[in-house]
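Q: How do we represent a protein-ligand complex in a form that can be generated token by token?
A: Start from the inputs.
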Amino acid sequence: DTGSAAAVPIDDVDIAYVTPVTIGTPPQTLQLDFDTGSSDLWVFSSHTPASQVRGQEIYSPNKSSTAKLLEGHTWSITYGDGSASRGNVYVDNFTVGGLSVAQQAVQTAQQVSSSFTSETNIDGLLGLGFSTLNTVSPKSQLTFFDNAKASLDSPVFTVDLKAQAAGTYDFGFIDKAKYTGEITYVPVNTNPGYWTFTSSGYAVGSGSFSSQSITGIADTGTSLVYLPTAIVTAYYRQVSGATNSRNYGGYVFPCSSALPTFTFGVGDARFTIPSSYISYSPIAPGSSTCFGGLQSSSGLGINIWGDVALKAAFVVFNGANPPTIGWAKK
Ligand SMILES: Cc1c(C=O)c(-c2nnc3c4c(C[n+]5cc6c(C)n(C)c(C)c6c(Cl)n5)n(C)c(C)c4cnn23)c(C)n1C
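Then emit the structure tokens for the protein with 7B2 bound:
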């Protein structure tokens, strides 16, 4: 089996991407944020209080003849930006881009935090991290990928995110038309459950490449890139007027400033993030102060290669044993 579905930016700065999925019988279509940084599949639902729903599509298990309540099971999750949701659990038919799983655990929200309510074009999240991170209790559930893996032609999914254009999530195959040159595979540490790998170093603009290990997670659910402070200060030193603003919670700079590119290594391969991805967005509509797409990871306890970096590559999440992650130019 294989599957392929579009990853569509939800706004004009690629702050997040959504992918259509169908749940139940007859099929109910929702737009979910595929997130390699978590492992819960949860949706806005008929159990979500109306006061917390602002235009999102909802999943109604009572309208699906194949839905079954997972008695006594609950879930509760908090994300890196402090957003949170919790609820109960059904199993139902679940399809992504032609790839179906018969008894997928679908976590229905009974409570979502205000940032989810305000993110009107995200109907839920589909976790693509390792199932060890799943929060369902008393029995944790498998991700869509883990459920589908045995039936896939190859135990992989690939991520091709694009700037201001629809990219794809492919399951079970590697599409040679989506990348150029070779794919560089490196080991993955699955503890505690992220796609954790080690980058071989970085360069700012046309500067020399600094070979150093940068261990971090490949996270499609995070908008920006969060790296060690030393690297981030070295980058913004090249940007006139850049400051690390407590007020805005990170590095900001005049939108008119010229930004260098940022290159990161994976093994011997080098990936360059264009300046345009790092000149992320005005801090408010029409403002001449811009927020950086590269921010410090100090205080997070983890480095995060989010969408700003993933957009610059074609990435293979190889779920074989042992798992590896592959990066290619495109
Ligand atoms: C340690 C960490 C993160 C780890 O993940 C993280 C982060 N970065 N983007 C996102 C997230 C997103 C992507 N996302 C970010 C958005 C921001 C910053 N804003 C203003 C809006 C309107 C957003 C939307 Cl709609 N979508 N989503 C949907 C969720 C549930 C996220 C959770 N955390 N998150 C932050 C900001 N930090 C500090």
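The chain has a mean pLDDT of 98. The helical segments are 114-118, 144-148, 229-236, 275-278, 307-310.
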